[in-house]
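How a chain folds remains the central question behind the approach discussed here. This step matters because it turns folding into a mapping between discrete strings. The sequence in question and its structure tokens are set out directly beneath this paragraph.
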Amino acid sequence: MRETLLRSGRLGRDLLSVDWAETPIGPPEEWPPLLRSTVRTVLASRFPMWLAWGPSMTFFCNDAYREVTLGAKYPWALGRPAATVWSEIWDDIGPRIEQVFREGVSTWDEKLMLVLERSGYPEETYHTFSYSPVADDDGEVAAMLCVVSEDTDEVIANRRIATLAELAGRIRAQVGEQETIRAAGEALAAGRKDLPFHLLYLHDGSGAAQRVGIGGLPPEHPAAPAVVPADGEGGLWTAGAPDVGPTVVDLDPERFPDLPTGAWPVPPSQAAVVPVPGAQGAAYGFLVAGLNPYRPFDAEYADFLTLVGGQLGAAITDARAYEAERQRAESLAALDRAKSDFFTNVSHEFRTPLTLLLGPAEDALADSGEPLPPRQRDRVELVQRNGLRLLKLVNTLLDFSRLESGRMEGTFEPVDLAAYTRQLAGMFSGAAERLGLTLVVDCPPLDEEVHVDRDLWGKVVLNLLSNALKFTHEGSITVRLGLDGPDAVLTVRDTGVGIPRRGAVAAVRAVPPDPRGPRPQLRGVRDRPGPRRRGGRDPRWPHRGGERAGRGQRVLRAGAARHRPPRPRARGGRHRRSGLRPGDRGVLDRGGAVRRRRPRHSRRRRRGRPAAGSSSPTTTPTSGSTSRRSSPPTTTS
């Protein structure tokens, strides 16, 4: 057996140095064959193992167990009773070992927490192990073999990751700074094993630090001052620069006798001061975190606290940005309300003198007892007409201010919408005849009445028809009313210039819904260009005919109107994304990318004309060839 131990390296030599004669199992020459074979198996294994032999549970182990678990107890533990080696955790493992010797049944524990004193202080550790019986030839249990795997790093890392995830989950975007700090405190309080207590301080304008968060400590505790001076004199906590990292501070038990213990039976003896980094490199403040009394403050612990401080800094940055944006939005809303109130007040102030002006003018024109002379009547009629026109503009301004401030409310009632629309459209029949236009009113009776505001509906229809008459010089105007599912759809179609595509996008602005329930809403105006004119331009519109000329259509319906945004164009005619100029030929997809691009000379070559600079002979087109004027138009980007 001695030769086997000599070949086992340092551990074998340390086993030989033990005074085995003073132990219950005697010198190695007297060891029974089962003990010799079991020790050989344990020493040869690279998996951590230890052996308890006989009733005294004499301790043996291998190199793997010595390096991973035994720590400072090596080589003192060799040959001693297992109850003496692991006296600090015998209350946890002793009953399991005794059960193995008594019943001969194996045990299994996964990631069991054991507080070991293997490094000179109580240390939190986690192990997955099995106690197995070793029977002799008579079937009696002669020893206990433990195969163990330490999971301390994995368990603690997962626990800290869970704390960081809880912190990130509780800190929500678009909340104020106080709500963010309160949510962060709740998340940190859940990690009581790594953070028995915590304090959060933020710098104010004077350089001092104000306590804004506390967890695990009462507010009046001497370790939690409400204010930390800027110079740090007389204070316990001071933080370094954000790039320095956590700073460890020893806690005097005489000065702070009632510190919280967190999840442990003893209070922490140290605390770490962690900078909370700000958006511009300077620190917002610092976090004071009580340290786990059963774990060393190593690089992993420091990285964990640095990540906590970084998350707090990012959350405070987002909260302050949100509060600044909210204040900006409130300021804009206040300005908008002031603008609306101004328009409303001005409109009311304008209507009062207009009413006082139009009243006497109407009385003078209607006075049959003392009629005005013809010349004076013409003057008063001119005053009345312009006064009514100004009153109409003031009423429009008042409606606009009410619409902008959200105070315009419609009075909805069941209306025979087809008959009412025909009545409104009939008011333009005389004007259409004088302009030589054909007015087509296609409003058949609907199956049921529609709830609308008569005044608002009338304004919409009159405005649409007025615009159609203004921009239609020849052709016709069609007013059509029909049902499209649950919606009543009004379409005003004309043969005028239509709405430019960029203008159509700007025209589509949703009307806020009625808070009292659904109702028909003006959702948008759509433009459908008609056939392209030969020559590429409409003489009545200073743009390309392919984009502007043709029939225009305005649609009023209860539903969102979809619009395709205009393709971006840069100044000078070059397409912003594709680089095409107006003279180039190509095909653009919906995203504005060029799918096919042909040079200008390609058309000449395809028709038999050589490109510029070519030495090929000129080919004269035959009488049956298609002239360039009659060729189909090519899409111009």
Q: What stands out?
A: The longest helix spans residues 299-366. The chain is about 35% helix and 20% strand. Confidence is low (pLDDT under 50) at residues 509-551, 556-578, 587-637. The longest strand covers residues 123-135.
